[in-house]
Amino acid sequence: MSIGNEIVKGRTVNTNASDISSFLTNSGYEISYVLACRDIKEEIGNSLEFLVKKCDIIITTGGLGPTVDDITVESIALYLKLELVINEHAYSEISTKLTKRGMEFTPERLKMALMPAGSEILHNNVGTAPGMILKHDGKIIFSIPGVPSEMRAMLPGISSFLGPSGMEYYSLEYDVKGLLESKIAPYVKELIKKYNYEMLVKTHPESGNTLNRKVTIEIYGYGKSKKRLETLAQEIKEEIDNIILTKL
Question: How far, in Å, CA of 65 to CA of 222, rounded?
């Protein structure tokens, strides 16, 4: 869940969502939803309500800083009906960073140490505001800064906390020139059924004139064995290549 008016109104391109999704997908986790909402407590709460019902792991980005519109952690505490308290580890980490920079620990900066009771911190080695880890009713909520460099630096920490997903992900992509997506669509549908949805096939068309038309074919799936996924993907590719050669 990306939080910020600048995201929703289109001022800022939401690269965080794609980076997080790509990182976790390749770690064997399946992404179900990607949401964005404004810096409004009610909307953050509504988004959380939806995600808590649907997902086991929720990651929020943005809204952890010292400004008046940084209300992510406060909104999470309000929605979950948890007391907002000063996290001693967050306070210590922020205090150390401010001291090294010769900066004052103002009330606004103190806000970055406030977290729902029971939270753990996720270390931020790039910026000032630490991230938050909260386990609640069998769910895990991570809140990390929206600054892309800080977000990316904290992804390994999320992965380390979660541990191995128990699943492997594999994707095979290749381009086919001069192919009409609509022509191959019926064959793709049958191939997915043939492999019992263990591997999925997605076509990504690229606009252009007839001579330069190109379709990227993506074959992907999750499973216990990456070797099996690789084998299945290669088998499907060979079938697709044969269909293109003999039927299209």
Answer: 36
For every residue of 163-218, DSSP letters joined together read ---S-EEEEEEEEEET--HHHHHHHHHHHHHHTTTSSEEEEEEE---TTT-EEEEE
- pLDDT tens series, the chain, 248 aa: 999 999 999 999 999 999 999 999 999 999 999 999 999 999 999 999 999 999 999 999 999 999 999 999 999 999 999 999 999 999 999 999 999 999 999 999 999 999 999 999 999 999 999 999 999 999 999 999 999 999 999 999 999 999 999 999 999 999 998 888 999 999 999 999 999 999 999 999 986 665 678 899 999 999 999 999 999 999 999 999 999 989 88
Q: Which residues pair with 139 in a beta bridge?
A: 136
- For the chain, domains (ranges, CATH) are 2-162 (3.40.980.10), 168-247 (3.30.70)
